[in-house]
Design a protein that fits this description.
The structure is a single chain. By secondary structure, the chain is an alpha+beta fold. It contains 13 helices and six strands. α7 packs across α8. The chain starts with 5 loop residues before the first helix and ends with a helix.
């Protein structure tokens, strides 16, 4: 299918691709580990074929009191309870159990039957086939909730769920794996956005401490730093000539750029 990458299929066909293994851990490329991945691998799935963390779409749905439109669209396809929708960026897969349940055939059938309706193709297919059969991993192992934390009513909506500690995890940076969801990846050209700054603060330092990456990233870091300085000077120069809402927007942009520059200069 044109909408599916080879790696998306790898998740769905893992039992056949790795016949010599009974279990694997899958991690998206936009994740940073802060704990021993062996702990994740050794998780007791209590008989489930898949271990995963519920998605940020569920967190925002809990706050709103009703599922996001993205999740409601999947209800007729088999996701009867959208509040159980999980994120497929971090998975513990019991390949033996997936083979026993003929999961590959079922997953490919969902793709063939509902291809154009799947907004997040492989993730949606996994959610439909394994609906309410997922072992819930602690949110620390797929922390991607940082952009939902400012919502009013968050604490009340999360009470009694695994999301109850999300605010504290954010405040103490106590995640075990940080997942940089969204399109604003820190290795792409800088953007003046909160999303980019948070990801950059998490990713750049460990990336530059990785010997194999350092030669490729040094020049990129220098380019990003120089661009940020130019943008900062430009906005500071024009601030006195900005008025009203334009002044407030430019001032907010300057604050974002200062934070971004601190990230790059602190690497």
């Amino acid at each position: 299918m044109k909408r599916f990458s080879a790696l998306a299929y790898a998740r769905l066909l893992a039992p056949s691709l790795f016949p010599q293994h009974s279990r694997i851990v899958y991690l998206d490329a936009d994740t940073v580990l802060y704990a021993d991945v062996a702990e994740l691998y050794d998780t007791d799935l209590c008989g489930a074929a898949v271990g995963a963390v519920r998605d940020t779409a569920v967190l925002s749905s809990l706050v709103a009191g009703y599922p996001r439109r993205q999740l409601r669209k999947l209800q007729p396809l088999g996701l009867h309870d959208p509040f159980h929708y999980f994120n497929s960026g971090v998975l513990v897969l019991d390949l033996d159990r997936m083979r026993e349940e003929d999961a590959e055939v079922r997953l490919l059938h969902v793709i063939e039957e509902h291809n154009e309706l799947l907004e997040h193709p492989d993730q949606d297919a996994l959610n439909i086939v394994f609906h309410r059969q997922i072992f819930p991993l602690p949110v620390e192992w797929n922390y991607h909730f940082q952009f939902e934390l400012g919502k009013n009513g968050l604490e009340e909506a999360c009470a009694g769920t695994e999301f109850a500690g999300v605010s504290n995890i954010h405040a103490t940076c106590s995640w075990k794996l940080f997942h940089m969801i969204g399109s604003k990846k820190p290795w792409l050209f800088p953007e003046k956005s909160e999303e980019y700054i948070v990801s950059a603060a998490v990713w750049w330092k460990p990336a530059m401490e990785t010997a194999s990456l350092r030669p490729h990233l040094s020049q990129l870091l220098e380019e990003f730093t120089q661009w940020t300085r130019r943008q900062l000077r430009h906005n500071q120069w024009h601030l006195p000539f900005s008025f009203g809402n334009g002044f407030r927007k430019r001032k907010a942009r300057i604050n974002l750029l200062k934070r971004l520059l601190r990230v790059f200069e602190g690497v």
